[in-house]
């Protein structure tokens, strides 16, 4: 029974991270890049998967071995650094949660024709309900798993109706016509950027899966999480490629909805509504849980009223969208800042692996350290580029 319970938690953590990554932005990004890069986008997906795994394994292992949350590890590396990291994560999580709520509202609008605001309000209430049940952790795990399976299954159906040139996609994945570095970094940021990479690691810690003896399970869960998100990305890529290969024009106003509708007609459009809602609302849950976990150990009040802080986080995100609408300028700025969170966080985690007061006698694999350093440098350069180009847009 204990083994079954542990397996369920490991799978729940993997799905929490994966469904946190699969949000409205994930769906749009994948479709837009497929339209511009065609079959060569397969290479971008392959490179991003490799980088994602490198970042994810490093961070999850260090959280497990230290038996501490990321912000506490950062404070041990340099006093005050944990507060800075927590501030970045919470600001990014809150801003993007407003976008996730908007995506959930859009999904409801497609399905039932209700206003986006009404759909957002209903979705916010459902997300809050998950944290109000007695065993919120289990409810969150199960919800993420069910919604993850639903999204993947429906996208597979649309992919088959689109009849993509699979052979060409396989060839171009390894021999691309064009390599787009910015697309690679965008995908990495969208899969393991900001709060996302910590979602599963913190969930395992909360569930008591930690310490040196748990490292094989933690590593397996981390890789599984990237695998789940990548499966969704690949199927969506193939669906979009099938549509483009037929010479059909994708609507720039809503690229993913256009793909589903062109591939499978009105049924496809309704399927998009389900996928969009599931992607958005699971991202709302993941962002709220993970963002609050970053301030839980820094504030006794938040720790005492953890459940209600999560509820407030979701409620604020929902009300901001319903009352004000999506604050585009804030999203641009925080999006740029979010691009810098991964290299900062991963850099801090890599330093922590060589501090005995944090990891004891644990020896981190050298190849994993090198892998992590490469990711830090690449993401820091591109995150800086994103930040420099994002701020001027606020003043246009």
UniProtKB/TrEMBL annotation:
It is a multi-pass membrane protein. Keywords: Membrane, Transmembrane, Transmembrane helix. This is Divalent metal cation transporter. Its main location: membrane. GO terms for cellular component: plasma membrane. It comes from the Bacteria. GO terms for molecular function: cadmium ion transmembrane transporter activity; manganese ion transmembrane transporter activity.
